[in-house]
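dumping this here before i forget
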Amino acid sequence: MVSLPLDDIKSHILWKLHIRRIWGGKHTAIENVAKGVQNHLRGDYIEMAKKLIKHGFILSKPTSYGQQISLNPRKMEEIIKLVTEFANKTGKHLI
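structure:
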């Protein structure tokens, strides 16, 4: 099976959260980063999301019903740059 480069996975996760406006106080389940992705890539997406939490791009909020995540507003400039490059490369739209 073909797998994506880690930079593409990272950028795609950030793009998905950005396009849905999941910044700061608005959260979504960590499992949602893998929605719409081929089954064999879902584990890679969850692992990359955990790495992005460690690097501070994504904020984590543990809840009784699971881990919730959102984009870190303090890293907005870096995230917007990565998302814009990804959108230009893949032809996806930005908000």
